[in-house]
Design a protein that fits this description.
binds NADP nicotinamide-adenine-dinucleotide phosphate, alpha/beta, about 325 residues
Length: about 325
């Protein structure tokens, strides 16, 4: 039995709403571990639904979200954060009693506010967020090992029953992930530091280079060094997903951005004043953080960040699986 494999399905029928990178990876990992009996799916466009019918990672693909969730004991909302409320409203009346609904959105407080009011009382809503992703999106971007050894945060609502959360945790572990529970507000602050603001900085830096390119012709592309190349990879992430992340995690992002700007001014001043000791001390501290991440098993020390890692046939090769929202 492979790591994460289960003797019998943890959920008899799961419904994936949204069939992109995350949902595709969930489906493939659940298939590999045997933790889902039947996998039903729905995506907004007929084009994506047709692609998934071809790719075959769902057992059934439906033309409406309501149809997809009928009879499901686990429903996973894997659409952009801004679409969660609309989907919850569409599926609410079709959810069976005792069903578990979770989501994979990169922001938690706004998703809870948008989804919870639409779900019937006898449904267990347990918000979640896998800290795993790539800059690729769409139904062809998923791969079974995406969640291997990555964190999957759950933010159960106050007063939530423990048994459904334990069952969802077991499912998430069957996909290869490690589970931790966290308060939604804390999640949004932590993620703004570890993911959201870094993405904004990457977007900005690539924007600056794009502007410069007009001055230096194509040299920015031609002589692109590793640091800038990594920024461009992050800045290639799905525009709709990231638009929604910044619109819905506004408060935490603006707070962290303020702190970032202050630090930037400190470094700017050290450079202007030629303060070698301050620069060296600062970079020594930040280097230790990188070591900590590698020691925690959340990235590889390889100079290519594990880009050459083998993937299942047909999967889109990610540059690195660390660009989670
Ligand atoms: P994705 O590859 O772009 O897939 C999104 C899917 O949602 C597509 O199948 C899309 O359908 C569908 N969709 C969009 N709007 C919809 C609507 N109104 N109704 C029904 N389906 C709709 O996105 P993803 O990367 O899997 O991200 C999904 C969620 O996971 C987001 O909330 C994101 O914040 C979160 N997340 C992403 C990452 C990451 O690194 N990518 C990591 C962790 C969490 P069509 O193809 O038909 O448009």
């Amino acid at each position: 039995m492979s790591a994460g494999a289960t003797d019998r399905p943890i959920f008899r029928r799961i419904a994936l709403i949204g069939l992109g990178l995350i949902a595709g990876s969930v489906a493939m990992a659940a298939r590999a571990s045997g933790s889902a009996g039947h996998i039903a799916g729905y995506a907004k466009s007929a084009e994506t639904r047709a692609a998934v019918r071809d790719l075959g990672f769902c057992d059934s693909v439906h033309d409406s979200a309501a149809e997809a969730v009928a009879g499901a004991d686990l429903v996973i909302l894997a659409v952009p954060v801004g679409a969660m409320g609309e989907i919850a409203a569409a599926i609410g009346p079709h959810l069976g009693p005792g069903a578990i609904v979770t989501d994979v959105g990169s922001v938690k407080q706004e998703v809870i506010a948008a989804v919870a009011p639409h779900l019937p009382a006898q449904v267990h809503f347990i918000p979640g967020h896998p800290l795993a992703g790539t800059e690729h999106s769409g139904p062809r971007a998923g791969f079974a090992s995406l969640f291997q050894n990555r964190w999957w945060l759950l933010t159960p609502l106050e007063g939530a029953e423990p048994a459904p959360t334990a069952r969802l945790s077991a499912f998430v572990r069957s996909l290869g992930a490690q589970v931790e529970e966290m308060d939604a507000a804390h999640h949004d602050l932590v993620l703004s530091v570890t993911s959201h603001v870094p993405h904004l900085i990457a977007y900005t830096m690539v924007g600056v280079a794009d502007h410069l390119k007009r001055v230096t012709e194509s040299e920015v592309i031609k002589y692109s060094a590793a640091g800038f190349r990594d920024f461009t990879r992050i800045a290639a992430s799905d525009p709709v997903m990231w638009r929604d992340v910044f619109l819905t995690n506004k408060e935490a992002v603006l707070d962290v951005l303020g702190r970032f700007t202050e630090e930037l001014f400190v470094l700017q001043r050290a450079i202007r004043m030629g303060d070698a000791a301050q620069l060296q001390e600062y970079f020594t501290r930040t280097r230790a953080i990188r070591r900590g991440i590698i020691e925690a098993g959340q990235d590889t020390a390889a100079p290519d960040f594990g880009r050459s890692a083998a993937l299942p046939e047909g999967a889109v090769k990610p540059s690195a699986k660390s660009d989670e929202g």
